[in-house]
C-alpha cells in the first residue's frame, strides 16, 4: 500500500559561522514537498510537479547559507518579532519606551539586526494526526535583540494531503512585548526570471501612504483607479510598469486587507505554468514587495544560477496592519506576559 501520509526527513544543508545548518523536508503523496532550513527558519523550497514529469520550486532560494546575508532582502526568511518598520526604533508598550537597535538608518526593520532571520533555529520533526511536521524552536532573548521579554518561539510547518502549506508562529514571552511575525517568502510560479507575467488578486481596498523612510503615515490610498487596485485579478507586470514614475519603480507597500470568508487575502497565478497560490491569513495587513531593487550581484539564486534579476520574485507578507509610525501605537501587536499567542499563514498551492 502506498503511503498517503506526509513524511519528513532531516539532512545537513551546510555550515555557517561554525554551526551546522540543517534542511528539514516534508513530502506528500502528490509529489509536493516543502523544506525549511534552520538558518533563520527560512522556507527553502515549495516543490510541485511540473508538466514534464519534473518538479518546480515555486519560491526563491540561495545555494548557501552565507548568501542570505549578502543582500538586504530577507529571501524567504522567518521574520520577527515584528515584520515591517518601527520608526526610529522607538517601541512603546504601556507608555514605556524602549529604544531598539536599528538596522535601516534610524529604522528598525523586520525585527532589527538580531531578528528571527539571523538566528539558527533548532529544527525537529514532530507528528500531527499521523503526519510528520517540521518544528523550529528558538528562545529569542531580550539581551540579544533589545525587545522586552525573553520569548520562546515555535514555528510549525505542515503540508496537507491537499497541498496546503501551513506556517504557525507561536510565542510566549517572560514580559509584555510585541509579536507580529511573518514569512518573507518570494514566489515565482513561472519558468522565467521575473514575475512580470503573473496575475494577482488582493482583497484590499486601501494601502497605507508611506513617508520617505517607508514608515506608514495616517493617510490612506484608496486603490480604486490606481495601480494599487488588485480587487479583480490583473497582470502584475502592467501594474509594476504603472509605478515606473515612482521612486520605488514598483510595489513596496503596506495593504490593509479584508480576509474573505475563508480568510484568503491574496491569490497569485502564473498563466503559463498554471501554478497558483492563495494566501490565507486572518491578520489585517500585508506588505507587497515586487523585488524592484534586486541586483545581478550578491544574489546567488538557485533558479537563475547565481544571478539576480529585478522582479525575480514577489513577496507577500501577512501581518497585523501597522498604525501610523509617529503614533507609536503598538497595542494590537502587544502580547501579554507568560501567555502563548499564535498566528498562522497558509499557502494553498495548485498546479
Ligand atoms: C520591505 C522592503 C524591503 C524588503 C526586504 C519588505 O518587507 O517593505 O522595503 O526591501 O522587505 O527587506
UniProtKB/TrEMBL annotation:
Its EC number is 5.1.3.21. The keyword Isomerase applies. GO terms for molecular function: isomerase activity. The keyword Transcription does not apply. It catalyses: alpha-maltose = beta-maltose. InterPro entries: Aldose_1-epimerase (IPR015443), Aldose_1/G6P_1-epimerase (IPR008183), Gal_mutarotase_sf_dom (IPR011013), Galactose_mutarotase-like (IPR047215), GH-type_carb-bd (IPR014718). It comes from the Bacteria. Keywords: Carbohydrate metabolism, Isomerase. Transmembrane segments: none annotated. Pathway: Carbohydrate metabolism; hexose metabolism. Catalyzes the interconversion of alpha and beta anomers of maltose. Belongs to the aldose epimerase family. This is Maltose epimerase.
